[in-house]
Specification:
Blueprint (H helix, E strand, L loop, with lengths): L13 E2 H8 L3 H9 L6 E2 L5 E3 L1 H15 L4 H29 L9
Protein name: MerR family transcriptional regulator
InterPro entries: DNA-bd_dom_put_sf, MerR-type_HTH_dom, MerR_fam
Pfam family, one: MerR_1
Length: 109
């Protein structure tokens, strides 16, 4: 993804302290979720973790699931499924639009 394709939601510009304030999670909890490969901050040249608003939303979701007793392993497994589900959803919508407007898929020609 190029910088031009990034939105405010995906740009990694928020420090861990601000994320902690926004989410109510401690910095230690946030680092733990990174260790468990649930969140993937970028690092500045000085090694400072940088998060996006999308990461903040992910952390809130993780925290809610943890409160409900879901283990980090289970959360990670669900997170792995999401890109496939999104790809399938996009494909279905594209197919519906193509059918609606009579556009043939290049693969079917």
């Amino acid at each position: 993804m190029t910088d031009e394709e990034k939105t405010y939601k995906t740009k990694k510009v928020i420090t861990i302290g601000i994320v902690s304030e926004l989410t109510g999670l401690s910095e230690r909890q946030i680092r733990y979720y990174e260790e468990r490969r649930l969140i993937f901050p970028t690092r500045s040249e000085r090694g400072t973790r940088k998060y996006s608003f999308a990461d903040v939303e992910t952390l809130m979701d993780i925290a809610n699931q943890m409160e409900d007793g879901v283990r980090t392993f289970e959360i990670r497994q669900e997170m792995k499924k999401k890109p496939d589900e999104q790809k399938l959803r996009r494909s279905m919508i594209k197919g519906q639009l193509n059918a609606r407007f009579g556009i043939q898929n290049e693969q079917r020609k």
